[in-house]
Amino acid sequence: MALVLVVDDEPDLLALLLDQVSSLGYDVVAARDGTEGLRVAMDRRPDVILTDVIMPYMDGPAMLERLRSSPDTREIPVIALTALTDRRTRSRLSQLGVRSFLPKPYSMRELGERIREALPPSIWGEPATGAGKRPPSLPPRTRR
Fold first, then answer.
1. Alpha carbon 17 to chain centroid distance?
2. What mean pLDDT value characterizes the chain?
3. Residue 126 pLDDT > 80, yes or no?
4. Is there a contact between 60 and 98 (Cβ–Cβ < 8 Å)?
5. Residues ≥6 apart with Cβ < 8 Å to 43
């Protein structure tokens, strides 16, 4: 089962995200800021990181810089959960290797889609060459 690290400094949103990610069928661990998120990522090596951008102590971009500087965490897919939608913020986060963005507010469908898209096919139980296949437990996407 895939492990998702959720990093957010807002206690209510963190609790909500933990419940939502868990209800999607993933194992989930939490961190309350970038410093704690970095420590948990180094210790647990999650399959995906879902992180807020603006946080005290160490913000999302600073955490990402540290993650990308380590060979052990460099390749972990990161999804930025943010209300910041300006081009400059997105560009900076993209340069730091953010896989995708989940704008606040978001829907459960969007949350599930972003996590599934970030997971490598090997996590689904498929060989690495199975890119583009859907996990067997998930319904196929419908057109929007």
1. 11
2. 85
3. no
4. no
5. none
**DSSP per position, 41-63:** HHHH--SEEEEESS-SSS-HHHH
SS3 81: strand
Largest CA distance in the chain: 41
**15 pLDDT more than 50:** yes
Nearest one of 38, 33, 17 to 112, comparing CA atoms:
17
Q: Do residues 63 and 37 make contact, with C-beta atoms less than 8 angstroms apart?
A: yes
Q: What is the mean pLDDT of residues 74-90?
A: 88
pLDDT at res. 122 = 75
Which residues neighbour 119 within 8 Å (Cβ) at sequence distance 6 or greater?
2, 47, 48, 77, 135
Task: Output the pTM of the full model.
Answer: 0.83
Strand segments (E) across 8-140: 27-31, 48-52, 78-82, 98-103
Cis peptide before 127 (omega within 30 of 0): no
